[in-house]
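> forwarded from #structure-qc
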């Protein structure tokens, strides 16, 4: 390393330590100097790349050894985790070539693919593994102010084209376009001159921070602050209490809560001593989780987890092994890892006879790639309880011969050990389903079973026998009949399958059965039986007997999955099925869109544990709730929701065209029972994605608030073509905090895009 490089590295680390309190150490020094590593995409694609941590200690830059100036960057903030050793399918495929202590995998947030790397030495691999983990931990522990400083630093770096640590006026003009700001040159020059206190014709460090703060002055929040501030300079303890009671509708312990906010968010020690809050503190509070629209108490595990399993909505994935489409897509254990880490609690495997007696997983009769069943089971053993300790249901669509079913049972038993539930919890014949609390740390098999739960408990042993095909298989054949003929329907009904006792014994509380009718289920079904429905069949049942479906789901589990015609892995709207109390509504987790936004929105609450307690009226055998007629409910209490959309902050650019600036508008959607389905929009604002202001009020009536989800969507208005998506945020109506609130927007992929947000005022009132 040259003296100049060493000095630059030390300077970067000193600055980073001052800003973020992280110690300069050999790992970070090594990363800043840079390392040549192999980027691995497959057994045959292994290319050397030069990687280094940039001086902001937040961005990783890499360049091909041969490609001249070709380079890429990614932010440390995009990295969710670092896996050591051969912990990806790609690295496992080259395990014979490179030892595990030189290999590691960077796992990115959202649906972006992993980055598999091989270092030249164990020491270099450890420097990167430990260094990146340190930077990730530091980012996660940053406070609001530090995040804002980082954001400012990022913009400075983007604007400083000639890298001289200063910003001239031309660079400022370019910066404004990058930031989605359409500002006339005269006003921009005025701000620049005001910030240039040294009168050098350039902005550096503190001057740039001043420029940024003038640019981001929050007039909307200042207006609220001055309305409650007696002297216009600060909020006294009484002023703050008045604001919290009148606007934020806090009722209990308001004085203590106000003191707590001052302690947490007020930057001025003088104001703290006076038990007061300055505008800076007020802004920090409203930008924090306390000022978020999502009630932070409901982000924690807050629901009763001791109810029967059928009383919960369960986060569920369809064809979990697929990362792409249903015909030619890639099958991968990564699909299971990603779903489980998102809190998914029901995953699916399609099992077929494989080579050398080893069952395989893939989408049968298609060109999707194949993976081994035992690798899926290994991943379940390793990842099932990282995001949530509550039970995982493994839904098996079994197409294997009896011989390979025995191998499946062997893998499940040997790899999962005590995690696999193989008998009832207390060894006795139960009267109903156990609770998520009872089943913590357990993996339940959903599949066909020989006889009933009682037979196994009574010691009745049968030879392998024939069982009806599962509804899934039948549905596939029925949907195919559009292209063939009606005889298939009859043939599928008579189709039988041999079942191994070993695999059958692994099924305890989730026995797959064919659904005949609600009357038949009411008279004959056992609590441990579960039926699967295609989306179209489930909707038909809701239309014809919605209240019956709700009652059926109060007694036992139902699973709904996408139509076989969705070969592109698109999703159906899960809300329609939740309205009928269906617990396992299986979606293609790999496909972003409104349907997965709703799924993420519902399961974001309750500690993201993958289980959400159904409303009381859906768990009650005495009450008939009809989602088509919610007003017939005994405790019907409709609510009025009023949302004033005030402003937006630093919305991301969606069009990469030079000089293009968005024309944003906000749409609020209500997803719930049919009577509640609604959407309204603000007007669009010309050429301002940086700080658009609306003050538009949208009004809704909510008839079944316990089932409603509210989705805020920002789009770029285009009068000649389809509007571009900018960001969204979805949450349960019951988790909304009233008053002045920020909504921190998410990308199409469901990942955060700080500091993009909306500022709103919410009021919820009784209509009766």
């Amino acid at each position: 390393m040259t003296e100049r490089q060493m000095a630059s590295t030390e300077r970067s680390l000193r600055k980073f330590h001052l800003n973020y309190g992280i110690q300069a150490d050999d790992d970070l020094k090594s990363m800043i100097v840079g390392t040549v590593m192999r980027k691995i995409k497959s057994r045959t694609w292994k290319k050397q790349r030069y990687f280094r941590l940039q001086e902001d200690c937040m961005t990783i830059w890499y360049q091909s050894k041969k490609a001249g100036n070709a380079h890429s960057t990614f932010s440390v903030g995009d990295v969710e985790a670092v896996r050591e050793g051969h912990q990806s399918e790609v690295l496992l495929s080259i395990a014979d070539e490179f030892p595990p202590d030189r290999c590691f995998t960077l796992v990115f947030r959202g649906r972006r693919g992993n980055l598999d790397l091989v270092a030249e030495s164990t020491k270099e691999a450890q420097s990167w593994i430990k260094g990146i983990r340190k930077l990730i931990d530091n980012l996660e522990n940053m406070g609001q102010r530090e995040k804002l400083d980082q954001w400012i630093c990022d913009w400075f770096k983007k604007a400083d084209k000639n890298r001289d640590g200063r910003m001239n006026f031309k660079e400022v003009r370019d910066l404004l376009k990058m930031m989605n700001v359409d500002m006339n040159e005269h006003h921009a020059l005025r701000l620049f001159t005001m910030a240039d206190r040294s009168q050098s014709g350039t902005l550096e460090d503190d001057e740039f921070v001043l420029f940024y703060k003038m640019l981001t002055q929050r007039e909307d929040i200042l207006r609220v602050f001055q309305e409650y501030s007696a002297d216009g300079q600060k909020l006294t303890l009484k002023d703050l209490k008045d604001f919290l009671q009148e606007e934020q509708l806090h009722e209990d312990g308001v004085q203590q809560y106000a003191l707590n906010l001052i302690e947490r968010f007020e930057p001025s020690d003088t104001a703290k001593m006076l038990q007061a809050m300055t505008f800076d503190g007020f802004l920090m509070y409203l930008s924090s989780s306390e000022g978020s629209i999502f009630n932070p108490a409901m982000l924690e595990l807050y629901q009763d987890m001791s109810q029967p399993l059928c009383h919960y909505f369960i986060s569920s994935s369809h064809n979990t092994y697929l990362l792409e489409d249903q015909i030619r897509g890639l099958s991968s254990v990564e699909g299971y890892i990603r779903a489980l880490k998102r809190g998914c609690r029901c995953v699916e495997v399609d099992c077929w006879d494989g080579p050398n007696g080893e069952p395989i997983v893939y989408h049968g009769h298609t060109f999707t790639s194949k993976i081994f069943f035992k690798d899926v089971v290994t991943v379940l053993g390793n990842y099932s309880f990282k995001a949530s300790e509550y039970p995982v249901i493994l839904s098996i669509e079994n197409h294997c011969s009896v011989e390979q079913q025995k191998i499946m049972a062997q893998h499940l038993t040997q790899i999962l050990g005590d995690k696999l539930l193989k008998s009832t919890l207390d060894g006795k014949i139960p009267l109903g389903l156990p609770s998520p609390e009872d089943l913590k740390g357990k993996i339940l098999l959903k599949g066909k079973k020989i006889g009933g739960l009682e037979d196994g408990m009574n010691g009745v042993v049968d030879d392998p026998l024939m069982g009806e095909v599962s509804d899934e298989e039948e549905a596939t054949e029925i949907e195919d009949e559009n292209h063939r003929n009606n005889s298939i329907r009859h043939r599928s009904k008579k189709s039988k399958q041999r079942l191994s006792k070993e695999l059958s014994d692994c099924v305890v509380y989730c026995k797959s059965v064919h659904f005949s009718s609600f009357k038949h289920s009411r008279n004959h079904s056992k609590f441990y039986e579960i039926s699967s429905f295609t989306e179209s069949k489930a909707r038909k049942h809701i239309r014809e007997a919605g209240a019956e479906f709700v009652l059926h789901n109060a007694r036992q589990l139902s699973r709904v999955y996408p139509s076989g015609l969705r070969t592109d892995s698109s999703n159906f709207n899960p809300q329609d099925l939740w309205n009928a109390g269906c617990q396992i509504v299986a979606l293609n987790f790999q496909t972003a869109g409104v349907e997965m936004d709703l799924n993420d929105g519902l399961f974001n609450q309750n500690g993201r544990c993958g289980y959400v307690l159904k409303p009381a009226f859906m768990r009650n055998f005495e009450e008939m709730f009809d989602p088509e007629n919610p007003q017939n409910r005994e405790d019907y209490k409709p609510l009025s929701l009023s949302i004033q959309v005030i402003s937006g902050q630093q919305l991301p650019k969606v069009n990469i065209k030079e000089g293009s600036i968005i024309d944003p508008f906000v749409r609020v959607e209500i997803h719930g029972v049919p009577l509640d389905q609604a959407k309204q929009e603000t007007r669009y604002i010309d050429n301002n994605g940086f700080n658009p202001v609306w003050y538009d009020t949208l009004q809704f009536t909510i008839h079944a608030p316990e089932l409603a989800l509210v989705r805020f969507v920002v789009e770029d208005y285009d009068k000649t073509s389809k509007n571009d998506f900018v960001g969204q945020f979805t949450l349960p109506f019951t988790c909304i905090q009233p008053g002045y609130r920020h909504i921190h927007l998410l990308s199409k992929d469901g990942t955060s895009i700080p500091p993009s947000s909306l500022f709103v005022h919410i009021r919820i009132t009784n209509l009766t």
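QC bot note: The longest helix spans residues 535-555. The longest strand covers residues 752-766.
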